[in-house]
Structures are given as C-alpha cells and as structure tokens.
Amino acid sequence: MSCDPNKEWLVIVNPNAGRKKGGKDWEEISRLLSESGIKFNCFFTERKLHAIHLTAQNIERGYKNIIVVSGDGTLNEVVNGVFTQDKYPTEEIALGMITVGTGNDWGRMYNIPRNYKEAISILKTCKTAKQDIGVIQYYSSGKQERRYFINIAGLGFDAKVVKKTNQQKEKGRSGVLIYLINILTTLFKYKDVKAEIIIDGNKIEDEIFTVCLGIGKYAGGGMMLTPNAVPDNGLFALTVIKKMKKIEIIRSLPKLYNGTILKHPRVESFTGRNILINADPVAYLEADGESLGHTPVEFNILPKSLNVITNAG
To answer: Which of 102, 101, 81, 82 is nearest to 91 (CA)?
Structure first.
C-alpha cells in the first residue's frame, strides 16, 4: 500500500507561504489534522532549499507519507528531497498538499480545495495516483546542476517573469495580480532568442518568445500554459510561443486563461520524453515557479514515479 493513513505523517510547513499565511494559519491546520486522527511530526522551513534537506532527512528516518503546507515552490523542494534520498524507491512515497500559497497551480490540477478541513479529509482517504516527474540538467554559475519538478518548467520570457515575481515575494509582495503586472512590465524590455529545440531527436529552430514544458496544465495562478498536459502519460506537453509583436502578446493573454492558446498561429505544441534546448543569447529557466539557471538544458521524464494524494471526487 503506497499510503497508510494510520502511520505517522511528515508535515513540511513554509510559514512564509501565501504572504505568511502558512505561519498564521498553522495553529488552525494543526488542530484540524489532530481532530481528523492524523498523527504527524511537523517541521518549519527556515530558508530557501531547506525543505529539500528536511524531506530527505526525514525519509531516511522512515517517513513515507508527506504533507506539504505551502505553495508550489516548497512543493518543488519537497519533491527534490524525495528524489535525492536513497532509503526508499520514490514510488513508495505518498505526497499530499494543504495549499496556502498564492498560485496553487499543482493543487488546481487535482481539484484540491483551499478549505483546510476539506483538504485534510482528502488526505485522510490516502487515495493516490501515480504521477510523472520531470528532471532538468541546466547550467548555473558555470556548473551543471540538476533539479526535479512536478508541474511546469519554462524558458525565456516565462522565466524572466518568475524571477521578477520571486524578487517581489522576498520583499513581501505576492499574488496573482502581481504576476500579471510583471508580465506587462517585463514584456517591453524582453528580447526574443534564437532557439534550437530537439524533441526525441527531432530538431526545431526558430526565434522564440517563451517555451513551457508541462506535466500539469496550470501556472501563474491559473494560466493554462500547457493545456494538453496529462500528468501520467510519460510525456511532457511542450508549448512553443514564437516571436510575435508585443501588442499581439497582450491581445493573446486571455487565451492563456481559457485554454485556447494553442489555436494561435504563432504557437506550436509538441509532446516528448527527452527535450534539449539551446539558445542565443542564453535563455533563463524556471521550474514550478522557482528561478534556476540557463541553457543549454536537457529535460527527461520519469514516468509514474511518485504517488500523489488526489481528490478522487
């Protein structure tokens, strides 16, 4: 059994998530977890990347059921903790979420309610689905690095917007509206890049505005950047937005929210297991809303490699 509700759960809390909502609401969430009969051991993150260490360390101590009380950034760190530990195969770990972040795009895909009591009742069922996980090799400060992701990664314009948004989060400003404002303010300074994209051996060359690779559909607080993504089919959904006029980009923003972006003539979609991307000048990278390094990058899919607790209803 991949998820036993009677075992003690590891709970990772980011107190700064959702404009410090994680910390403010923890007393209520803790009470509801206890009232539901879930036994748990809780750890608070204290700094960036801390959740990776906390997760790997506590899996080594025997935890297999994990609850993330945060947003998508801390979820990404927990996933990286799962995939860098070596005590258990990742398929034996069950991961659930109580969403307190600003975007909550991974939870949106699985219809995880924002209401804490309802979210905990879903965790209590321990009903899991196997999900694909992506792994990226990229460059940062002249060194090749590796990162796992659970939802969506982006290069080019998308990564620039994420970087600006993250800088504002560090100053206490966040929210879906901030993300949208950053799209508009970043747009007028951004320059397209010449990209070479190799999808399972097939090469594409073009000037691109942004590239998104999805396991999930949603990013940026509800934008459907990869509307064709299926989280357990062993394939990335790739959305390539080619160079276009800035006024046309602004006009096309509603298509990102209603899922029709792939109908635009300057947008192409693909699927693939292995994707290599190079760009001139270098294109910057984000994964699950976390700013990383830059091209050249290589993406590989790890099919059905993690159990996630879903809202079966």
So the answer is: 82
